Amino acid sequence: MSGLKPSVIVIVGKSNSGKTTLIEGLIPKLVKKGYLVATVKRAKHGFEMDREGKDSFKHREAGAKAVAVVSDDRLALIKEIEGEPALTDIISAYFGGFDLVIVEGFKEEAYPKLVVLRGLEGERELLKLSNILAVVSDEPDNAGLIRFTSRESEKIASFIEREIIAAK
């Protein structure tokens, strides 16, 4: 199944709309179908993986611009950058060979999107984004788009398989 260039689906929604919960439900269903899945999460307000006192933290504090932490079963790279890289560059650099990359955030990207709506103020603006395939909402109004409820992760995984992975 693993091709050189993965399929990509972007999950967008307001903060606390259920994006992460949806992704957590989709991953095991897609993995069970035999797909190699990766995720990219946009952290608008920055993030920190190092903890004070750890060697990787000490290396960065000493001036290293990149630190890799490696074990028998994991690799983590912490690299200082100036400006956020393009999503296509991130996918090309790190996710070749994966079947699917599920992206949380990056709503302005042209990739196919699922919009998660939870009745939060201002979220209907998201329906003006480009390339929306479906809406995930427990409310009946779906602006004429394909609609899934938040409890239909099996159906959503099959939809992603059919519309994103197999359509590639």
Summarize the structure.
Helices cover 25% and strands 24% of the residues.
Summarize the structure in words:
- The chain has 168 residues and is an alpha/beta fold.
- Helix content is 25%, strand content 24%.
- It has 4 helices and 8 strands.
- The strands form 2 sheets. It has a 6-stranded parallel sheet with strand order 2-5-1-6-7-8, covered by helices on one side. Strands 3-4 form a two-stranded antiparallel ribbon.
- Helix 1 crosses helix 4.
- The protein is globular, with a radius of gyration of 18 Å.
- The termini are close together.
- 24% of the residues are buried.
- The mean pLDDT is 88.
Q: Write down the secondary-structure element order.
A: EHEHEEHEEEEH
As residue ranges, the low-confidence spans are none
Average pLDDT reading: 88
In percent, how much strand structure appears in the residues? 15-25%
Bulk shape: globular
Helix percent band: 25-40%
- Rg from alpha-carbon coordinates: 18 Å
The major beta sheet can be summarized as: 6 strands, parallel
**Could you say which structural class the secondary elements and strand pairing correspond to?**
alpha/beta
Distance between the termini: 12 Å
Number of helices: 4
Strand order of the largest sheet: 2-5-1-6-7-8
Oligomer state equals single chain
Strand tally: 8
